[in-house]
Write a structure and sequence with these properties.
66% of the residues lie in helices and 3% in strands. The protein is mainly α. 22% of the residues are buried.
Length: 199
């Protein structure tokens, strides 16, 4: 069989759903019993929490540059990629040669540094939003952040407020309802996990 035929069979066998599921499982394994996992992924990799949340929930497939970044920091992600490609033996060889242990040590160091910084300084949430001052003073910080994220092009939902601001689901829904009533946002679709866009 030619190389091109092999590549065709490999690409046909691997689906986006398989990749999304494997990456979500790997991230959940790496961040087992950790709260908030999404924020820690951001601190370790530099990838925005809103983006990482989609992978953590298994709803989206990382872009190639993000996938490589995750594989660089997380041994479980690298293992998932190798297994999807059918080269689990390569992963086992890396484990035998000590490469995976070095990756884990590096990850543990990043974790330790992040935890130390978290104890020393407050966690900041950056708010970048352009809004009429009269309207802005009627909004809370979470709502301003939500609007700012929409202005930057992110597809937002109430769950993003829960993950980033660590508020109850009811609080997040109240915040979104306030934005809807102020006619600043509209739903992109109805139903569960509804996403919103600027009006």
């Amino acid at each position: 069989m030619s190389l091109s035929n092999k590549d065709h069979l490999l690409s046909a066998a691997i689906t986006d759903a398989m990749i999304a599921k494997s990456i979500a499982q790997a991230l959940r394994h790496e961040h087992a019993n950790v709260t908030p996992a999404i924020m820690q992924i951001e601190k370790i990799t530099g990838i925005k929490a809103i983006t990482a949340r989609k992978w953590y929930n298994g709803k989206h497939v990382p872009r190639s540059r993000h996938l490589l970044t995750l594989a660089l920091y997380y041994p479980q992600v690298l293992q998932a990629i190798c297994e999807l490609m059918g080269i689990g033996a390569l992963w086992q060889e890396m484990a035998r040669s000590g490469i995976i242990d070095k990756m884990q040590t590096h990850l543990d160091e990043k974790w330790g540094k992040w935890k130390k910084q978290a104890l020393e300084v407050d966690r900041f949430v950056h708010i970048h939003v352009r809004l009429n001052a009269h309207v802005a003073v009627q909004m809370n910080q979470r709502q301003l952040w939500f609007l700012g994220q929409l202005q930057q092009g992110y597809k937002m939902q109430a769950g993003d407020l829960v993950d980033i601001w660590h508020v109850h689901t009811k609080t997040a829904k109240r915040d979104v309802l306030g934005l809807l009533e102020a006619e600043l946002i509209v739903p992109m679709k109805t139903g569960r996990n509804c996403r919103y866009k600027l009006l």
